[in-house]
Amino acid sequence: NAGVTQTPKFQVLKTGQSMTLQCAQDMNHNSMYWYRQDPGMGLRLIYYSASEGTTDKGEVPNGYNVSRLNKREFSLRLESAAPSQTSVYFCASSEVQGGGYTFGSGTRLTVV
Amino acid sequence: SQQGEEDPQALSIQEGENATMNCSYKTSINNLQWYRQNSGRGLVHLILIRSNEREKHSGRLRVTLDTSKKSSSLLITASRAADTASYFCATDRNTGNQFYFGTGTSLTVIP
User: Fold this and answer.
1) What is the pLDDT of residues A56-105, one digit of tens each?
2) N or C: which end of chain A has fewer CB within 10 A?
3) Which backbone phi and psi does B82 adopt, to 5 degrees?
4) Beta-carbon separation of A48 and B98 below 8 A
5) What percentage of residues in chain A have a pLDDT greater than 90?
6) How far is B53 from chain A (nearest CA, A)?
7) B1 pLDDT exceeds 50?
8) Which DSSP string corresponds to A40-98?
9) Which B positions 46-75 lie with beta carbon below 8 A of chain A?
């Protein structure tokens, strides 16, 4: 099925560990995004990539890095995980900037 | 900081009734979108409305936009149990490229 695929679906990390969340889309979309969703906070934009080769910070970029590996893939890296990064992470893509997003099913991350 | 604020935070209705959710925002926009999220799932795009549009329809969904009041509403007519979900508005803060989400309205449709 066409769409946005995120891996892993669940992850538990210890404080200070690092990990990379993977995201791939097969719709030939130009723009990709990483959001985190916390109870009562809605979704907050971490980083986005308007097109292949570009990345920009969103609202809450601290503690994260991203890589737009190619047009299909956009990864999110936590270099030194903290309990405050416990959240559900969503990747999304859009054909053009300003267009509707297609979301992945999310990665539920717990940092202990 | 959140751009959109949905109201009410929670809404419970009987199947067959209409559900109305509102979204207010603070800065000017190019586009506003509405999304649905079923429990434990990703968000699904419902409707995009541009700042020069006042109303859009999609099936049982009707979205209005009043840029002078910086507000939008989502109306779901003849609701079904399957409409039970959280609904979010998202605005682009006039950037045209990334969207900022509100905290959502939790809708429960009772069969």
Assistant:
1) 999 999 999 999 989 999 999 999 999 999 999 999 999 877 788 999 99
2) N
3) -70, -10
4) yes
5) 85
6) 15
7) no
8) TTEEEEEEEESSTT--EE-S--TTEEEEE-SSSBEEEEESS--GGG-EEEEEEEESSTT
9) 48
